Amino acid sequence: MATRLSSREHYLDLLDKYDTWLFDCDGVLWQGDKLIDGAVEVLQLLRHHKKAVLFVTNNATKSRVNYKKKFDSLGVEAHVDEIYGSAYAAAVYISSVMKMPKDKKVYVIGMAGLEEELREEGISYIGGTDPEDNTLGSFSLANWTPDPKVGAVLCGLDTSINYTKLSKAFNYILRNEDCAFLVTNEDSTYPTAEGLLPGAGSISAPLRYALGRDPIAIGKPKGTMLDCIRAKHAFDPERTIMVGDRLNTDIEFGKAGGLATLLVLTGITKESELSGPNASPTVPDYVTNSIGDLRVLSS
After folding, report:
1. Taking a C-beta distance cutoff of 8 angstroms, is the pair 184, 154 a contact?
2. Nearest Cα to Cα of residue 73 among 106, 108, 33, 105
3. Which residues does the record give as Mg(2+) binding sites (predicted)?
4. Which of 13, 16, 19, 26 is catalytic?
5. Tens of pLDDT along 191-215?
C-alpha cells in the first residue's frame, strides 16, 4: 500500500530522507500553460534545503534550451543541465549507445525540439519539419526516392503527423533490416490545460501495427533516461525520489531505477486507480494530492 501523505510530519520525513528530487513536468508542475498552485514555492523550498532538483520529461517537442523558456515564462527556476527530455535522451542514445556512423541519417517523425537535440549531438536527419514531408497531399512510392543513408527512424510526438511521414518511415524500416526503429517515448496521451490529447505512443502506433514489431523506446519508464541522468549527475538511488502523475511511466520509471516514488493526482492518474477492483498493479511509495501540499514545510 502507498503511504498517503497528510501531515507536516509526513512531508518532513520526505525532506529528511531524499537528497535528489526528480520531477515530471506536465501534470506535476503545470497543466498546459497553467502552473500547479504552490509548485514554485515547493521547488524554492527544496533548493533552500540544498536538495538537487532535476526535471525529467517525456515531452520530445522541445529541446532542453527551448523547454527552459517554458520554465522561465512560468516563473519556475530551472537550468538547462537540470532538464532531461526524451528528445535529448534519444539523441544521446543514437550517438553514444548505437554509435551510428556520422555518414548515416535519421528519418524523423517529430517536431523542431527533436531536430535541435539531434543537431547538438552532430546527428544528420531528414523528415521532421521539412515542408516537403508536411503535406496533406497523397503519397506514392512511384514518386519517392529513398535516401540510402537513413540508418534509423525516430518517432516522437508530431502534431503534423500525416500519411506521407508514416509511409516513408514504414518503408525505411521495411526495406532495410539494419534500420533502427526508435521512439522517444510510448505515452498514449499527454495532458493539456484543456484536457487529454494523443501522445507520442499513439503517433508511432500505426508503424508498430504495419510493421508487426515493437520499437526501442527511450523515455520513461525505460532505463535509458536514468542512464542519461546518471552520466551527468551523481546521485544515491536510495536517497532519490521520483515525483510524477502517471503510474505506467513516472512511477514505473522510478521503481525500475531503485528510486522512491511520489504520485501526485493533478495529472493523468486518478484516485480510482489506486484501490479497488480496477486498481493498477503499479503502486507508488507515497501519494499526495498536489505538489503544492509540500508548502506545509514552510510554515
Report:
1. yes
2. 33
3. 24, 26, 245
4. 26
5. 777 888 999 999 999 999 999 999 9
Q: Is 250 a catalytic residue?
A: no
**Are the C-beta atoms of 36 and 26 separated by less than 8 Å?**
no
Gap between the Cα atoms of 32 and 28, Å rounded: 11
Average per-residue pLDDT for the chain: 94
* Residue 130 backbone dihedrals phi, psi, to 5 degrees: -55, 125
CA–CA dist 116, 89 (Å, integer)? 12
CA angle centred on 150, ends 147 and 156, rounded to 5°: 115
255: number of Cβ within 10 Å: 18
Mode of pairing for the β-strands spanning 180-183 and 30-31: unpaired
Determine whether 147 is an active site residue.
Answer: no
Q: In Å, how far are 105, 194, 297 from 153, measured between CA atoms?
A: 9, 31, 47
Residues in a beta bridge with 83: 55
Contact 54, 82 (CB under 8 A): yes
24 is in an annotated binding site: yes
Single out the catalytic residue among 13, 16, 19, 24: 24
Q: What is the pTM of this model?
A: 0.86
